[in-house]
Amino acid sequence: TLPKEPAVLRQNILDTTAAILACGIDPKKCFLFRQSLVPEHAELAWILGCLTNVPRLLHLPQWKMKRASQNSEGTVGLLTYPVLQAADILLYKSTRVPVGEDQVLHLELAQDIAQHFNKKYGEFFPVPKAILSEL
To answer: CA-CA distance, 95 to 114, in Å (whole number)?
Structure first.
């Protein structure tokens, strides 16, 4: 949610890809792609953002913490990032999502958005369930 130097961002993408492959992810058995090259993520985030009310987003603790660290200003990116996460989950009609405890509320937002969308337009998105990591 903060601006990055293009060269640093490109290197971060390469480093993250290398780390994923080094962990043993086999690209012959899974899809590995750059999300930013799939326009449907941003398109669905826009649609879902038009169905999500601002007070719901303002109650997320991540918004409050990050806003405090940005001199109480906060950016639109901080506010809309959880909707983008919901779009990432719902775009692929995910039914189970591995999350850490710090992301449970964001997954609950994705569940709420899916239910709201389904109520308004008919059953389309499955309501995803959390798989909590046990560390």
So the answer is: 11
Dump pLDDT digits (tens) for 112-131: 999 999 999 999 999 999 99
CATH code 3.40.50.2300 for 35-132:
no
Q: What is the pTM of this model?
A: 0.85
Give the residue carrying structure tokens 């290197």.
Answer: 11
32 vs 74: CA distance, rounded Å? 32
Alpha-carbon distances, residue 15 vs 10, 32, 47, 59 (angstroms): 9, 14, 32, 34
Number of neighbours of residue 114 by Cβ within 10 angstroms: 22
Asked whether 35 and 17 are in contact (CB, 8 A), the reply is no
